[in-house]
Amino acid sequence: MPGRTQQRPDITPETAPDTTTATTTGAPPRFVLWREVLIAYAAPAVMASAGGIATGQSELRIAALTSIAGTSALVATLVGLRHRRRSADSWAARGPVPLLALAFGLGCAALALGVGLAAAELLPRIPALADSPWPDRLRIDLPLSAAIAATMTTWRWRASLPRRRRAR
């Protein structure tokens, strides 16, 4: 009916909407390490397993759950722990996000390449692994997984920091 106003219910502290959440205040989402590690394991495991199923490669399906996803989860854990200890005034918190993510991705890939090359050389000397194709995969699986996990974890950590107001 025209001219009629609708009455609002009384808003009390108990019935008031929660305005302290990150989405309403504009604050970035929190960096939660266990979620980062879970995603770092699950995403490559699913994708590499799907590739192994699609191409019929049983060794890729096994590597997806072990060397590929395991490396990603380990690197995400180590990089995430390192980032959580940083202060808001550190060089990593102030630098450009793409450059920071690239630096961490390449650094972790280089370390993982060294570990992968050493493992591919030493593991076949163990009699049980002498005929296994698994150690040869480490040359590719470890650096690639480490690079992706370090890049994504660094990018997401940096995105979780509050943006600084720039002087005008």
Note the topology.
Blueprint: H1 22-25, H2 33-55, H3 58-84, H4 91-94, H5 97-122, H6 134-159
Helix pairs in contact: 2-3, 3-6, 5-6
Describe the structure in your own words.
With 168 residues, this protein is mainly α. The protein is 65% helix and 0% strand. It is elongated, with a radius of gyration of 23 Å.
Structure at a glance:
This protein has helices spanning 22-25, 33-55, 58-84, 91-94, 97-122, 134-159. The chain is an all-alpha fold and 168 residues long. The relative contact order is 0.15.
SS elements, strand count: 0
Q: What would you report as the Rg, rounded to the nearest angstrom?
A: 23 Å
Order of helices and strands: HHHHHH
Q: What is the terminal separation in angstroms?
A: 51 Å
Q: What overall form do the CA principal axes indicate? A: elongated
The count of helical stretches stands at: 6
Keywords:
168 residues, elongated, mainly alpha, 65% helix
